[in-house]
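Chain X:
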Amino acid sequence: MTTSELIVDALEHPDIPRCAALEKLMFADDSPWPATAFRAELNAPYNRYFAAREQPGGPVVGYAGISTLGSPGDLECEIHTIAVAPTHRGRGYGRALLAALLAVADECGAPVYLEVRTDNDTAIALYEGAGFVRSGVRRNYYQPSGADAYTMIRPASGVTLQQTGGAQ
């Protein structure tokens, strides 16, 4: 997927040091992922990770990951992370990364779950705009800060929450 100065492609092992550095910058108060965590995520066969870049082969300015879990006919997806460097926010990188993740879920017809800080209004608006709804609160979810998180769900493509039995 490419638009003007916005490229979303596969996150690769050579991107790991940049991702770990961005984690330290953006999530210093909430246990940023070290390089070993990114390596493990990329090596797991049920995960897909994407990178946002300004040019082909350029440095990572954002990244996102999703898991597909369950068995055929009963799959669900969980978004692990979406992060965009502070210098690149507000330019559509987060929206493009989310679209790549949702395409993975749509390919297998799975609902998507995620957690988001209750005080992250920008991310909440992004997710709600993509069809997610709040389904619960996880108290003290982010550590060590103790920040709460909303659990959000987007039903499988073509399914409404009423059809799945969830609240509207």
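Chain Y:
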Amino acid sequence: MTASALRALLASGRVTHVPGVYDPVTAALAVAAGHKAVHLSGAAVSATMLGRPDLGFVHATQIADRASTLVPGLRGVPLLADADTGYGNPLHAVWTGLAYSRAGISGLHLEDQVSPKRCGHLAGKEVIEIGLAAAKIKALAEQVPQLAVIARTDAYAVNGLADTIERCVAYAEAGADAVFPEGVQEIGELAALHKALPGVPLVVNRSEAAANPPAWTDADLAQVGVRLVLHPVAALLAAMRAASVTYRAIAESGSADQVERMPWAAFTALVGQDEALDLDARYVPSRLQT
């Protein structure tokens, strides 16, 4: 899949909310809900694949492998994936981009933390030299043009707004399709970024890992250049809560009857059971059917 659909959302002039998905079923649910783009986070893959925190346990190959299983269920809806720090230097970032493209990913976001990184909402982060970070963006933009490239900077928590703006300008000049100023939440600071980067789309994070993110309206965000709002782990946390309640009910009462669940018929429809059972009608010429 090309990056055209994702780039179109970035150029649309309006805010698009992008929920996290982490397997084929959640991908299908997001599409059924009408979402125009979805997100695959490293935290979600690390948790669901390895049961580990978002501290560098997963690599590009594992993100790409997970993406390849859920892209078919997206039915053309673009997938934006977490590319961490690119997993090394500019050459490694290009390799990551090519692996993501082969997996059907439409775009990635690449951050400028020192590798191995710390989770975006933990203290003690460090950022790499601005030239090296820009070189990774430039290499990706030039050598993997089939991917939309979103440049994330974690400089705000380390050096403040001025350095964040300087880095975002450099990354946009290096070829990023959008910039992602992690940690910048106040509308006035987003407006300052927008003023310094006219015409460059902004991406913001609404992760539950952040403390009390402000509830700006989409109109507020659109006015300061925000085009994508990521919700990377909302569905995962909701699913974990539902599973926890269900397991506790079974342990305590021997039944999950009191827990609200998706009907079995809805589940089988979601995963295409009827279509899978009707292979003759779909693929075998009628004269050969028995």
